[in-house]
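> forwarded from #structure-qc
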């Protein structure tokens, strides 16, 4: 459907299974925030701190929970999860261009590559020998698809994505510009103060419904493959080192760094700037807060954090000074405990004499 068309509130309610309050014939032509919405636009309230904008919003209708809709006088679609409903409707109004099927004249496609007739290969793209491009795949301008790499049906590569050789990508995978998949991992052996390169002879396997952000890097395996599970969501500028395994439906925010051979479970949430050392395991259903440094395996589900929260600079300097004193304080405390134990034991011996 063209984004230039409008949808009635009744139609949107039907698609969402929402309870409609207000005028079913109101026409919706776009989406916006509570603060910025204009007539003809639909908005949503998913965070209590934005409720203060609800009464003055100029939106033609609002996605609300039943609790937030109580007392609201405007048109509303009442749903259990307004943010999820917004996510579903957002595709109705997405203006992202859709490429036509076919190979652009400036693209270079190897004779042995297999490109489905419904796929699109953009200007200046390169598809090397024995690569496979599935049905409905869109390969953007100046992308590179290496030898023997495969892209499953419905995939979308933004311009300037690089897939090295022997990269296997599942169906409906989205990869943003600048991402590099299958680059050589950081593998070197020390020899008398110099470094000998280790050939990275594994590949990368990416499951279905994965999204990979701009300038994110996923290294190929040294021996076995690096593996990204189904439904994994990776933000921009993430580094996934060689032989990492990430379980299904795990999500990572920007600037996360995962060292080699680390295994991360399913349904984990890794916040921005988290670092993980290599050769550890993180179990399923773990949340790691922003800027945490994970230095050992996590074996129990739950939330984990490290580091110190922001403070005014003067307070932080005092705290940092106290942290430097902790070792000496711990030693003095041990000495006091020993002295108390000796005094207690002497008193006990005296009373028993």
């Amino acid at each position: 459907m063209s984004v230039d068309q409008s949808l009635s509130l009744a139609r949107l309610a039907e698609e969402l299974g929402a309870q409609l309050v207000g005028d079913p014939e109101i026409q919706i032509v776009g989406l916006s925030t509570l603060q910025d919405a204009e007539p003809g636009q639909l908005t949503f309230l998913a965070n209590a701190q934005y409720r203060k904008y609800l009464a003055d919003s100029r939106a033609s209708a609002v996605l609300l929970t039943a609790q937030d809709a109580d007392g609201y006088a405007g048109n509303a679609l009442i749903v259990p999860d307004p943010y999820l409903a917004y996510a579903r409707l957002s595709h109705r109004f997405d203006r992202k261009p859709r490429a036509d099927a076919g190979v652009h004249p400036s693209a270079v496609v190897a004779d042995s590559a297999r490109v489905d007739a419904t796929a699109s290969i953009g200007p200046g793209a390169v598809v090397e020998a024995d690569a496979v491009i599935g049905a409905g795949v869109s390969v953007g301008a100046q992308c590179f698809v290496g030898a023997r790499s495969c892209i499953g049906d419905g995939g979308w590569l933004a311009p300037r994505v690089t897939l090295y050789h022997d990269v296997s990508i599942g169906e409906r995978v989205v990869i943003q510009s600048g991402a590099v998949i299958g680059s050589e991992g950081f593998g070197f052996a020390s020899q008398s103060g110099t470094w000998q390169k280790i050939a990275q002879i594994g590949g990368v396997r990416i499951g279905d419904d994965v999204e990979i952000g701009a300038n994110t890097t996923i290294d190929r395996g040294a021996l076995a493959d690096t593996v990204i599970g189904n439904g994994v969501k990776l933000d921009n500028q993430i580094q996934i080192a060689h032989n990492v395994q990430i379980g299904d439906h795990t999500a990572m925010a920007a600037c996360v760094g995962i060292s080699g051979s680390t295994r991360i479970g399913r349904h984990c949430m890794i916040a921005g700037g988290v670092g993980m050392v290599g050769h550890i395991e993180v179990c399923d259903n773990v949340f790691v807060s922003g800027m945490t440094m994970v230095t050992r395996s996590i074996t129990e589900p739950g939330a984990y954090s490290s580091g110190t929260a922001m403070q005014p600079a003067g307070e932080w300097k005092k705290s940092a000074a106290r942290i430097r004193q902790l070792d000496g304080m711990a030693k003095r405390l041990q000495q006091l405990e020993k002295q108390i134990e000796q005094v207690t034991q002497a008193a006990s011996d005296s009373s028993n004499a």
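QC bot note: The two ends are 95 Å apart (CA to CA). The chain has a mean pLDDT of 95.
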